[in-house]
Design a protein that fits this description.
This protein is an alpha+beta fold. About 50% of the residues lie in helices and about 15% in strands.
Length: about 160
């Protein structure tokens, strides 16, 4: 009888310990996501302040990569990439699109050699609300950790307005 009581107590202690470890892990993960997201949001806000909305409006297809507007945008994105130690595929400018009640974005600015200007991307539902807030000029946002077919990310988002 004493072995059964010890066994139950050990099981209870193990279960409580497991729950505590899971909660601590979730808490730390959330804190890291929030801090990283806040940093990405600040980077996006800073970058957006140096990009002309008029230049963004001039970009719609890969042919526009040869324009002065794209070159000005690319110069800013290269600076952002360099100063923040980001990879080429971590810095984008996108434009919102709504087609058939589906919220998408089209790529406008990027640093890759092989560009895909004008291509569409459908933000996952879990981050779409953050995108919509930026589109509605409710200020900069950062997403929670999310995954799509390209990997797992946290995004910093900021509206681009015309500087002129």
């Amino acid at each position: 009888m004493i072995f059964n009581i010890l066994g139950i107590n050990t099981l209870i202690v193990a279960a409580v310990g497991t729950v505590a470890i899971i909660q601590l892990d979730r808490s730390q993960k959330s804190e890291v996501q929030d801090k990283f997201g806040t940093k990405l949001e600040a980077i996006a806000v800073t970058a957006a302040s140096f990009i002309s909305g008029a230049d963004v409006e001039q970009i719609s297809t890969n042919r526009d990569v040869q324009t002065a507007s794209f070159e000005r945008i690319e110069t800013v994105l290269r600076s952002v990439q360099s100063v923040n130690n980001l990879q080429e595929d971590q810095v984008y400018i996108v434009r919102p699109k709504i087609r058939n009640n589906l919220h998408t974005v089209s790529f406008v600015g990027m640093l890759q050699d092989e560009t895909f200007i004008g291509d569409s991307y459908v933000p996952p539902a879990v981050v779409l609300e953050s995108y919509k807030k930026v589109w509605d000029n409710l200020g900069a946002q950062h997403t929670s950790l999310f995954s799509d077919s390209n990997g797992t990310f946290i995004s910093g988002l900021a509206p681009i307005t015309d500087l002129e």
